[in-house]
Amino acid sequence: MDSIFAQIAKEGVKFAPGDEEIWRELYEPIYDHAQGITVISDQRYGPATRNLLDIYVPPSASPKPKSGRPVLFYVHGGGFISGDKAWSKNVYANIGHLFASQGIITVCVNHQFVPDVQYPGGAVDMQLAREWVFQNIGSAAFGSGDIDKVFLFGHSSGGAHIAMNLYAAGDKDRYDELSRRRSGDPAALWPPVAGVIYLDCPFWMDSRKPGRQYSLGHYYGSFQDEVWYPKSPLGLFEQLPESSPALNSQCLPTFLGTVEWEVPETSEATMRFFEAYRKKSQPPGSLPLMRVFRKHNHLSVVLSIGTADTSVTDALLEFIRETIGGRHGGLQTVQS
């Protein structure tokens, strides 16, 4: 790992188009996937071509609570324009295999890209996929998951789509749709969510950057701040009604992760969200759990999962186990 960390430090906070392949290729040879994991690929959760998900089922011999296994719902990044639940044979299978080896059913989700989808299409994809999990994950075929122990995990723009789904009640134009899906309460967290994990999430975006102008313009119809910002992850959060359970750290435990070598735009977004959360949170002043991962950059933070570097894995497992322990009596550690 030392050579990878040295390369990360050498490159610093730079992140240019094409760099993602450089980092993936560095990590590809060092994965050692757990044995005994069942992978069920390309389950359809909605009508769009990319509305597909994969399920990683823990070994049958792994501990299973009477109420069912916890579930991790992972959404990849890609700047609204690219990415895949199976970027390669190993990525993001590294996430599925690692967490499944710890007794956690892992669902890796694809979503639509611009220019083929417009707001709130990405958030609707998340809702449809969450509803699929709610309706199906309890099946023995998918590992007998517990619908009350579903953790949402988004990296980069995947986190933005999750946030725009969870904080959709910040958009009054969507109240009728949300009421239909959420038992009459637009702000309800439905289906149930045990906790949410954001890693390097662009809650806010710099509309001066040409690449952002492309994605913002196609997704929101304009890259003018007065148009897109109110419907962005941060804008929606700031407009949530005070009754929203998403503002309460006891109702929706929130893990906010970033890295030592983060691109400046995303660092700014993370801190803006942290401050917005502090201002609106219930109980007043309560905070999301925040972690800065040393030695990592924007991509290595997820590529490292399932390698000998367990810094990210350990922190996420701790968050999941402590959250479950506080509500449901704990999750047994599995030795792999």
Structural category: alpha/beta
**Biggest beta-sheet profile:** 8 strands, mixed
The tally of domains stands at 1
Instruction: Just name the CATH architecture.
Output: 3-Layer(aba) Sandwich
GO molecular function: hydrolase activity
Organism: Cyphellophora attinorum
Protein name: BD-FAE-like domain-containing protein
Pfam families: BD-FAE (PF20434)
Give keywords.
336 residues; Rossmann fold; 8 strands
Task: Summarize the model shown.
With about 325 residues, the chain is of the alpha/beta class. It has twelve helices and eight strands.
Detailed description of the structure:
- The longest helix is centred in the last third of the chain and has 18 residues, at 311-328.
- Helix 4 packs across helix 5.
- The protein has 12 helices and 8 strands.
- The chain has an 8-stranded mixed beta sheet, with helices on both faces.
- The model is unreliable at 332-336 (pLDDT under 50).
- The protein has helices spanning 2-11, 19-27, 93-101, 121-136, 157-166, 175-181, 210-220, 225-228, 233-238, 264-280, 300-303, 311-328; strands at 38-44, 52-57, 69-75, 105-109, 145-155, 195-199, 254-261, 289-297.
Fold topology:
Elements: H1 2-11, H2 19-27, E1 38-44, E2 52-57, E3 69-75, H3 93-101, E4 105-109, H4 121-136, E5 145-155, H5 157-166, H6 175-181, E6 195-199, H7 210-220, H8 225-228, H9 233-238, E7 254-261, H10 264-280, E8 289-297, H11 300-303, H12 311-328
Parallel strand pairs: 3-4, 3-5, 5-6, 6-7, 7-8
Antiparallel strand pairs: 1-2, 2-4
